[in-house]
Amino acid sequence: MKKTKISNTDLQNMLSGKVYSFPKYTTQIINLANANAQGTRPKVVGQMSDLIQECPGTNLQEWEEWYFKKHPTAIEDATKKIWAMVQEFQKVIGQIDEKMINEWVEELIVVKTFSGLKFQEAILKRVASETGKNYRLSVPEEESAGIDGFIGDTPVSIKPITYKVKNLSENINVPIIFYDKKKDGIVIEYEL
């Protein structure tokens, strides 16, 4: 059996005859700017997976003509959004120095790793504060019984919100504190 590979550039060339060339690192910056600006979201350029299926054409030229009739300003709209974000990057890039990078790496490796892996204590601390009680983390024997900590004298288990929809045969006989990790923090649900 013979194996062969078609590179993305070759694939693009075979199907469209168009190959773009960008200086090193520029597409990474443009991708990052686009992710922040959301320039190529469906509300700006249309839902591509649906549009390509709707298009009656079979070649690049027919697709291009059909797409621009449906979305005549999409490329320009996306470009403006991304360009605005690149300009924001240009404003702040000069502020980045070795000290800032050192702080960023330290925050990632030390603080975020610790916080990300030890957030159960923060949950216990918050619930205890809101209920006017003390808290403590469980010891290994308690952990093996499904207890993650105590709020006052009440043992509790801490589970992700997705645990609610899972069909697990696990039987937890203590109150459960549910959490939902969001981009900007943790949302906690509990009844004690």
**Total DSSP helices:** 9
Described by strand count, sense and barrel closure, the largest sheet is: 5 strands, mixed
Number of domains: 2
β-strand number: 5
Per the principal axes of the C-alpha atoms, what is the gross shape?
A: elongated
Strand content: 5-15%
Q: Give the low-confidence spans.
A: none
> By helix and strand content, what is the structural category?
alpha+beta
> Terminal Cα separation, in Å?
64 Å
- How would you spell out the order of helices and strands? HHHHHHHHEHEEEE
Helix content: 40-55%
* Mean pLDDT figure: 90
Strand order, main sheet: write it out. 1-2-3-4-5
Any overview of this molecule?
There is one protein chain. This protein is of the alpha+beta class and 192 residues long. The protein folds into two domains: 9-95, no CATH class; 101-189, no CATH class. 52% of the residues lie in helices and 13% in strands. The chain has nine helices and five strands; from the N terminus they run ααααααααβαββββ. A five-stranded mixed beta sheet has the order 1-2-3-4-5, covered by helices on one side. Helix 2 packs across helix 6 (74-93). It starts with 7 loop residues before the first helix and ends with a strand. 9% of the residues are buried.
